[in-house]
Design brief:
Largest sheet: 7 strands, parallel
Bound molecules: NADP nicotinamide-adenine-dinucleotide phosphate
Low-confidence stretches: none
CATH superfamily: NAD(P)-binding Rossmann-like Domain
Number of domains: 1
Order of helices and strands: EHEHEHEHEHEHHHEHH
CATH architecture: 3-Layer(aba) Sandwich
């Protein structure tokens, strides 16, 4: 079978997407930094599904990593048919409280890496009968979020880029899909150092990564351009579009105070 390559696949939504794609009989390529978690994820996938799984531990935020990941696939003759750009993280708090190198790393992972991986893999994907790119965005892409400013802006970039790429590749064999989860029960919230009201609300409304993965993969195979996961997150994006921006931003700001 052809391979599906999933970034940020050691845990959370990425691991759940890898498991979901294995259900569709894809052989799986996993990447993230934590070799031990990647090995555990690979073992779990192989135990559950009769597919091949390989993994590469690397820090994608380093500038040469996208090219190194691409080289690894070529050197091993991995026949990639699905690219899932999932790796990403957020950092909450006042803009100037975050170290510049942390912001740079977030922008690298959330913006540059998925862009370059699309660019590197499109020529390979063009050789397939049908190929897919799935970019994991966020409900935070639908408005400016004070105290989560760089993360929400990075995801707005990825959403617009994904939509544009979908149109550019419309007449080709490659379908490009943007999927935006809302709060999901993963380590994201702890990495983002979210506290206060936002933490409490997320704990009450979050979805499970397996459910997010099921919806995301279904949307990808249906060649959807953009899907917001869950009715509450869809309503949130609708009201963010409908209501005055100042009101929406003030409300979001109070969540992250
Ligand atoms: N959870 C939510 O509420 C939520 C909501 C909307 C959107 N999202 C998006 O969903 C995606 C997945 O997040 P998640 O919720 O599953 O979070 P998570 O549990 O923290 O998983 C993040 C994944 O990215 C990998 N990663 C982080 N930094 C990396 C780096 N420098 N190089 C390579 N891999 C790296 C992590 O593995 P290692 O640590 O092993 O590297 C892990 O596999 C992200 O793009 C996130 O922005 C999440």
């Amino acid at each position: 079978m052809p391979y599906a390559l999933v970034t940020g696949a050691s845990k959370g939504i990425g691991k759940a997407i890898a498991l979901e794609l294995a259900k569709y009989s894809y052989d799986i390529l996993l990447t993230a930094r934590s070799a031990d978690l990647l090995k555990a994820a690979a073992d779990e996938i192989k135990e559950k599904y009769p597919v091949k799984v390989a993994f590469l531990a690397l820090d994608l935020s380093l500038s040469k990593s996208p090219q190194n990941l691409h080289n690894w696939c070529i050197e091993h003759n991995y026949d990639v048919e699905v690219l899932v750009n999932n790796a990403g993280f957020g950092l909450s708090g006042p803009f100037d409280s975050v170290k510049p190198e942390e912001n740079a790393s977030m922008l690298q992972l959330n913006v540059i890496v998925p862009t370059l991986l699309c660019q590197l893999f499109v020529p390979l994907l063009k050789n397939k009968k049908q190929a897919y790119i799935l970019n994991i965005i966020s409900s935070a892409a639908y408005q400016a979020v004070p105290l989560l400013s760089i993360y929400s802006a990075s995801k707005a970039y990825l959403l617009n880029f994904t939509r544009a790429l979908h149109h550019e590749l419309k007449k080709t064999n490659i379908s490009v899909t943007a999927v935006s989860p809302g709060p999901t029960d993963t380590d994201w919230i702890h990495t983002a150092r979210v506290t206060g009201k936002a933490l409490k609300v997320a704990g009450k409304v979050h979805m499970q990564p397996s459910e997010v993965a099921r919806i995301a993969v279904k949307a990808m195979f249906r060649k959807k351009i953009e899907v917001i996961v869950g009715m509450m997150n869809q309503a949130g994006a609708f009201f963010a579009w409908l209501l005055p921006k100042k009101f929406v931003e003030r409300t979001a700001s109070k969540m992250y105070e």
